[in-house]
């Protein structure tokens, strides 16, 4: 039935359908139904006339504007297929019915030259990361080419090639709708919600297999890279911000794992938490993955807008399948739209991006985009495929290939990464525990960095009744009424009083100081507090974005994660400044923490996974502010 139905759909140039092969299954799912374009995620028609419906949706990048973030508007529709039929067919049976003749490309190449892309990388590192606009940003370029066969035929040909030659993809899919055709093999589930459990799967670090395939030695060299390790930690932090916003228990980390594909290997973590939100709200609050945008998310969108030359279309958006769960709600399965080919009017487009961090090498990032594009084009058979990886037999099961992820040395190297991380996010957090500050209230002021959601979760763990308010919305009465105000972190130059956000955070800090009311200031707000006390601010010679350090904090030396480009600085050896006690670097004078009557501050992010001693240090500083 499926093969006959697929033949009918393929022959009808107006028909719309979706093919999905999910990781770990030996079937392909065929979904058909009416196409409906909607404006907002809330408009996705999960029920019609009161009856729950299954819906497949293609969510474009421009939808991030629902969160108040900027994006170029290319008109890419939020396209839904309201599913009328959902059929499963064995993969091996389907392969024979799909076209297999190779589809040659004409005029292939990147829309931005290597030199121009390298120049963009240099600018982002110096002018964005170097000015404190964020920790990492993903800037994409597109590989384009032309084909001489029908778009639908090409899509089905390449879908077959992916089923045959690619491995390890979370979803292998083909989406065929009027004017928008996509085929790909996404390695990454952005967000999944089933039975009240939300899962996110941050993947970062890309190891392109050398000619002849990956070996243990080449993989170990990749896993030992500081850049690749820190890149993964930063995206885990960013996705934990999202998890803390949608999950009552904040989210727990498991991993790291290897995501082994045919031509690429990635490193990944899994994040899990519980949520009662509508799946459309979960999707909205998690738009979009930092692995394809950057962090902090709001500023990453602004940086993308400044440096990408054209809109993103569906790149870095998601494909989302909403399935009725039998209890009146819907499960959600939403992979990221990467490793995807888009087809329109005989022209293909393969968007690829590199994650830029403080120590990125521009030529290395150029090479990464070539590797990602080649991975997609090789997987679909548009260019020669890489050779097979070197394999070894499992000693406990002769004849069975032993994956590199199962090698004891590789496993040990991966596991060793967790020794750097906060146990708070690795272990169950005991939601029912009564914290030491039970009965007290806290207002967390968000300065456009959703680390505040993680910070709020930790404060709740300590017993506080927490409210988060954006800097632009917070009212004076709320600032005055809270037992504790936590002035949060954010991007930008703390000295820039022309910025309405910086000026507002300065007003809040000043108001609490003048009222002699408990205040905790974090990162950007710590710098603003220091400046208010007359302490000098200066840019760091090298930004501390995603850096872990053990630093003095009033009698202890906690291990803390840092995401700062600017620092407050006193004379080396100073222990007091501006009427406050100071904990600073004994050599440079960089200020790590301040405290005085009813206030405390910290430069680092105690909520970060990089802060091994974060929760204890947070408790100490809150206790001082409230004393």
How is the topology of this model organized?
Blueprint: H1 2-11, E1 17-22, E2 27-38, E3 47-48, E4 51-52, E5 55-59, E6 78-90, H2 91-95, E7 106-110, H3 114-128, E8 136-146, H4 151-165, E9 171-177, E10 180-186, E11 189-194, E12 197-200, E13 203-208, H5 216-223, H6 226-246, E14 252-260, E15 264-274, H7 279-285, E16 294-295, H8 297-307, E17 318-324, E18 330-335, E19 340-344, E20 347-356, H9 362-379, E21 392-394, E22 397-402, H10 408-416, H11 423-426, E23 441-446, H12 451-461, E24 465-470, H13 476-481, E25 484-487, H14 500-514, E26 519-522, H15 524-532, E27 536-550, E28 559-569, E29 576-577, E30 580-584, E31 591-596, E32 599-602, H16 614-626
Parallel strand pairs: 23-24, 23-25, 25-26, 26-32
Antiparallel strand pairs: 1-2, 1-9, 2-6, 3-4, 5-6, 5-17, 7-8, 8-16, 8-20, 9-10, 10-19, 11-12, 11-18, 12-15, 13-15, 14-15, 17-18, 19-20, 21-22, 27-28, 29-30, 30-31, 31-32
Helix pairs in contact: 3-9, 5-10, 6-12, 14-15
Describe the overall structure.
The protein is an alpha+beta fold. The protein folds into two domains: 2-418, Anthranilate synthase (4-Layer Sandwich), CATH 3.60.120.10; 433-626, Class I glutamine amidotransferase (GATase) domain (Rossmann fold, 3-Layer(aba) Sandwich), CATH 3.40.50.880. It is built from 16 helices and 32 strands. The strands form five sheets. The protein has an 18-stranded antiparallel sheet that branches. The chain has an eight-stranded mixed sheet with strand order 24-23-25-26-32-31-30-29, with helices on both faces. A hairpin with a 5-residue loop joins strand 17 (318-324) and strand 18 (330-335). The longest helix is centred in the middle third of the chain and has 21 residues, at 226-246. Mean pLDDT is 90; it is low at 388-394.
């Amino acid at each position: 039935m499926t093969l006959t139905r697929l033949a009918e759909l393929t022959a009808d140039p107006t028909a719309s359908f979706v093919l999905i092969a999910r990781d770990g299954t030996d079937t392909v799912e065929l979904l058909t139904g009416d196409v409906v374009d909607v404006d907002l995620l809330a408009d996705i028609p999960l029920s019609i006339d009161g009856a729950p419906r299954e819906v497949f949706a293609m969510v474009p990048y421009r939808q991030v504007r629902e969160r108040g973030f900027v994006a170029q508007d290319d008109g890419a529709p939020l396209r839904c297929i309201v599913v009328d039929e959902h059929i499963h067919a064995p993969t091996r049976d389907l392969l024979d019915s799909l076209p297999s003749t190779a589809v040659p490309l004409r005029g292939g190449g990147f829309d931005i030259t290597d030199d121009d892309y390298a120049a963009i990388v240099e600018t982002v590192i110096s002018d964005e990361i170097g000015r404190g606009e964020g920790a990492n940003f993903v800037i994409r370029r597109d590989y384009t080419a032309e084909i001489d066969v029908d778009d639908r035929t090409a899509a089905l040909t390449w879908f077959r090639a992916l089923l045959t030659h690619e491995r390890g993809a979370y979803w292998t899919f083909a989406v065929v709708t009027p004017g928008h055709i996509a085929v790909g093999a996404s390695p990454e589930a952005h967000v999944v919600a089933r039975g009240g459990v939300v899962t996110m799967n941050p993947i970062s670090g890309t190891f392109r297999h050398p000619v002849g395939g990956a070996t243990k030695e080449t993989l170990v060299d990749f896993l030992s890279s500081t850049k690749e390790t820190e890149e993964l930690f930063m995206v885990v932090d960013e996705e934990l911000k999202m998890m803390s916003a949608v999950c009552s228990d904040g989210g727990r980390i498991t991993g790291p794992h290897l995501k082994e594909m045919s031509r690429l290997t990635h490193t990944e973590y899994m994040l899990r938490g519980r949520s009662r939100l509508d799946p459309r709200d979960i999707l909205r609050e998690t738009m979009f993955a930092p692995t394809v945008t950057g962090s902090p998310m709001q500023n990453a969108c602004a940086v993308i807008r400044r440096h990408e030359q054209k809109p993103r279309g569906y790149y870095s958006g998601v494909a989302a399948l909403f399935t009725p769960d039998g209890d009146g709600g819907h499960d959600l399965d939403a992979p990221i739209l990467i490793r995807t080919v888009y087809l329109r009017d005989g022209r293909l487009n393969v968007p690829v991006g590199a994650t830029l961090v403080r120590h990125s090498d521009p030529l290395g990032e150029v090479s990464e985009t070539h590797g990602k594009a080649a991975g997609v084009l090789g997987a679909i058979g548009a260019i020669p495929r890489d050779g097979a990886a070197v394999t070894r037999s499992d000693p406990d099961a002769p004849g069975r290939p032993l994956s590199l992820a199962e090698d004891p040395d590789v496993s040990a190297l991966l596991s060793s990464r967790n020794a750097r991380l906060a146990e708070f996010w690795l272990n169950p957090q005991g939601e029912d525990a009564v914290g030491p500050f039970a009965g007290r209230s806290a207002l967390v002021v968000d300065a456009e960095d959703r680390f505040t959601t993680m910070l709020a979760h930790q404060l709740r763990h300590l017993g506080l009744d927490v409210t988060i308010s954006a800097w632009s919305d917070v009212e004076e009465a709320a600032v005055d009424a809270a037992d504790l105000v936590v002035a949060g972190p954010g991007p930008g130059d703390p000295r820039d009083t022309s910025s309405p956000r910086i000026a507002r955070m300065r007003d809040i800090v000043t108001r609490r100081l003048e009222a002699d009311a408990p205040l905790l200031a974090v990162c950007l707000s710590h710098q603003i507090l220091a400046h208010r006390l007359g302490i000098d601010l200066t840019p760091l010679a090298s930004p501390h974005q995603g850096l872990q350090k053990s630093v003095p904090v009033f009698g202890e030396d906690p291990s803390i994660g840092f995401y700062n480009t600017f620092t407050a600085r006193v004379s080396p050896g100073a222990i007091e400044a501006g009427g406050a006690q100071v904990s600073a670097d004994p050599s440079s004078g960089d200020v790590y923490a301040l405290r005085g009557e009813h206030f405390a501050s910290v430069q680092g992010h105690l909520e970060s996974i990089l802060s091994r001693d974060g929760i204890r240090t947070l408790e100490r500083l809150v206790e001082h502010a409230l004393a």
